[in-house]
Every structure is written in C-alpha cells, then in structure tokens.
Specification:
The protein is an alpha/beta fold. It contains 7 helices and 5 strands; from the N terminus they run H-E-E-E-H-E-H-H-E-H-H-H. A hairpin with a 4-residue loop joins strand 2 (about 65-75) and strand 3.
Length: about 220
C-alpha cells in the first residue's frame, strides 16, 4: 500500500527525479539500477512432512528450528531486465560500499556512470565508501555512481520492491542454511535473467501530477 504524506516540495522533487530515470532510453554506458536489501530467515524443519496424495495436500509439521538470518543485497536493472543478488551475514555501511564497488567494477566495468535508485536508509550514503575504502578509492568509485533517492515514505517508487516481492514468493519458505539459500537464489536469478523479466511500470511524472496533485504544494498566484 502506498504511504502518501502531506504536500511536500521535497517529496515531490525526489519522486519526480526517480520517475524521470525510468523514462530514459537504455544505454549501457549509463545503466539504471534499482537497489535495496531484504532479510531471509533460515529455518529448518525438525520433522519430515507427508507428501501429497490423491485428494490430499502435502502436510508439513509446524515445528522448526531457526538458524539466524541472511541479508540479500539486490540490484534490479528495469531497462535491461536483469537482477543481481549477493548474500551477506550483516547489513552495514561496509556491505553497501562493497556492493557499490562490485557494481561498477564487476557488473558494469564499461559504464561511464551507473545511476542507482535507492531509499534514504542511513547506510545508503556516499560516506559509507569513505568509511570502508581509502579516500582515493572511495572517490574513484563514487565518480562512477549517481544516487537517486526515493522520498521518505516513498520506497514504493523503487522498482526493486516489485522484484523483492517476486523473490519472496518464489523462494522456499523452509531454507535451512546459507548454502541452500545461495543455491536457490542463484537458480532464481539465472531463470529470471534468462527470461529478461521486466516490470511493466506505467507511472510517470505526467501521471503523478494528475493522480497525486494533492502532494504538490500550492503556488500562490
């Protein structure tokens, strides 16, 4: 559900900047990437379930054992229909910084600037790279990044949220360990990338100015 705040020029400015990115033509020199993170709990069943039978659905015992959580760092390229996922034990500024470095050096080594749509979580900052790498290296990476922040309470504007919803539905509920999670995630990513699964995004600035006109501050005559 959308969380729409009161009229705010700051909200509108962030929203229109993000929506403008979605209307760009695909250019590998300036790829567009939507980024976010998601937590997956590792759960092991303690008693085997009963397989499905004619006229009877599969049965699964409710008892389980927790094995902590893992973080999925997810980037989705809406104009190319690609996604990339890394799995980490922690979700700090350092993980964000290393992912951004991997994005520009490994995923898009030929790109001039990688445009990244992301929310305003306090770990999603340029400062994270200076806290993780030497100054010259942090500056080198940031020169090839352009951050476009969704407004506060406006994460619904980030297309990666739709991709995370798909991942959440398709991943098995009971995944006992990191090795299994990595295998399941890699298989899902490979499948969706091969199909070049896109998001049919049809909400642009022209629509926002009509449908969300109450968000826009009134301008005195």
């Amino acid at each position: 559900m959308w969380c729409i705040p009161e009229a705010s020029a700051e909200y509108v400015a962030c929203m229109e900047e993000v929506l403008e990115q979605y209307q760009r033509e695909y250019d590998p020199r300036y790829p567009l990437v939507c980024y976010d993170e998601w937590v997956k709990q590792l759960i092991e069943t303690t008693r085997p379930g009963r397989p499905a039978r004619p006229g009877q659905a599969q049965r699964q015992d409710y008892e389980y054992r927790r094995h902590g959580v893992r973080n999925l760092l997810v980037s989705f390229e809406p104009l190319a229909g690609k996604r990339h996922i890394q799995i980490t034990q922690r979700r700090r500024r350092q993980e964000f910084a290393h992912y951004m470095k991997w994005l520009v050096d490994e995923v898009h080594p030929e790109a001039l600037v990688v445009h990244v749509v992301l929310d305003q979580l306090n770990t999603h900052r340029a400062a994270a790279l200076y806290e993780t790498f030497p100054p010259a290296e942090a500056r080198r990476i940031l020169r090839r990044l352009a951050f476009h922040y969704t407004p506060k309470h406006g994460s619904w504007l980030n297309m990666v949220e739709i991709e995370l919803s798909v991942i959440g539905r398709k991943l098995k509920h009971y995944i006992p360990d990191e090795q299994t999670l990595v295998r399941e995630v890699n298989a899902l990513v490979e499948q969706r990338n091969a199909a070049q699964a896109h998001v049919n995004w049809q909400f642009h600035n022209e629509n926002a100015r009509i449908k969300l006109h109450k968000l826009y501050p009134s301008i005195p005559a």
